[in-house]
Amino acid sequence: MTESNARPKRIAINTGGGDAPGLNAVIHSTVLSALNLGWEVVGIQKGYEGLFSSDGLIPLGRSSVHDIARLGGTILGTTNRGNPLAWPQPQPDGSVRLVDRSGEIVKAFRKRDLDALVAIGGDGSLRIAAELHEKGLPVVGVPKTIDNDLAATDITFGFHTAVQTASDAVDKLRATAQAHERVMVVEVMGRHTGWIALYAGLAGGADAILIPEIPYEPEAVAQRIRDRYQEGPRYSIVVVAEGAHARGGEPVFKAKGEPGANPRYGGIAEVVAGFLEEATGFETRALTLGHLQRGGQPTAYDRLLSLEFGAAAVDLIRDGCFGCMVALRSPGIEAVPLSAAVEEVKSVPLDGQVVRTARRLGISFGD
Predict the structure, then answer these.
(1) CA 125 → CA 82, 85, 239, 273, distances in Å?
(2) How many Å apart are CA 255 and CA 321, to the nearest integer?
(3) Residue whose C-alpha is closest to residue 333's, from 299, 304, 365
(4) What is the DSSP string of 225-258?
């Protein structure tokens, strides 16, 4: 068959893991870039689950993605529990057993006459994509996580929007903290890294920022609050990453999670608020922003980055660069192997410019 009469490429897109502002922009860009090459595009609903359903694939045309780049969420749906390598399978006795369905995924993909997959996800989803590529799935990855913890790319889309949401919340809390002369402890997402807490805390003018990379001493945080009250303004703002923990202690988890899912962080703000009120005597309140950080319209920066990533993913498919992930490596977009993309967590550098700036401004990290 010659190139002139070969059927158009038929590619699929899926979104996995937690949602992030910018997912729809990636879908928008991928679809239009592919259509402009004469290809066909379908979306797999809810991660990989759609491959096992007769109506799990939806055609994506120009009208399907019209005006979605500005929207939060994902038109394809997503899930944290669809790992083909450890698929939860209910047993007759009511228990759940994890089974490997990766081979079924590859077979189902081929049966649907699909030529390539654009997998949009964070470290977990991209690790799955890397494994599936090893089993024969032609896949290209797009890095997504509000946590900004993928070392292979300078930044992930969704991060800037999450920081904007968190810093806006800190700005609003400042008014009520000042009115009641309270200490406000704000818990933000980030899992095992403190990128959101650091950036939102610095931008929002927090008095203390607690991150996993710098285990805190409770008394050091309490002393910063006492000093703050003695200096004049009788209120304080503490921004704490969900994975932060005291020196010698462990992170706080809300739940262990379902089989095949990661434990869920949550509750550190209550812990910090409790010891601060007891240690200082100042009225203290805790607030967890939670999924507010995942929602809303992506910022202009995140939209632009998402659009660049989507178009670059199509370029990689055109060039046959499977098993790769698009990555921002300033000043441009590059391809990196998926296996390398997920091998290292990007933690906040303790000697980095942002941490140094925060320390110069007198912000405490509790160390």
Answers:
(1) 9, 11, 28, 34
(2) 39
(3) 304
(4) HHHHHHHS---EEEEEETT--BTT----EEE--S
Q: How far is CA 283 from CA 154, 181, 270, 311, in A?
A: 40, 8, 13, 51
Domain count, the chain: 2
Q: Backbone phi, then psi, for 294, in 5-degree steps? A: -90, -15
DSSP letter for 94, please: S
Q: What span, in angstroms and rounded, lies between the C-alpha atoms of 326 and 312?
A: 7
Whether this model's pTM surpasses 0.90: yes
Listed in sequence order, the residues at least 6 apart from 30 whose beta carbon sits closer than 8 Å to its beta carbon are 13, 41, 118, 310, 311, 313, 314
121 is written with which tokens? Answer: 């996800």
Q: Do residues 119 and 256 both lie within one domain?
A: no
**18 with 138, same domain?**
yes
Cα 193 to Cα 258, 341, 362, distances in angstroms: 22, 17, 22
What digits encode the pLDDT tens for the residues 290-317? 888 998 899 999 999 999 999 999 999 9
Q: Assess whether 153 and 13 both reside in one domain.
A: yes
What pLDDT, on the 0 to 100 scale, is given for residue 6? 67
Least confident of 49-53, 150-154, 274-278, 321-325: 49-53
Q: How much is the average pLDDT of 86-100?
A: 87
Q: What is the mean pLDDT of the segment spanning 257-264?
A: 64
Active site residues per annotation: 147
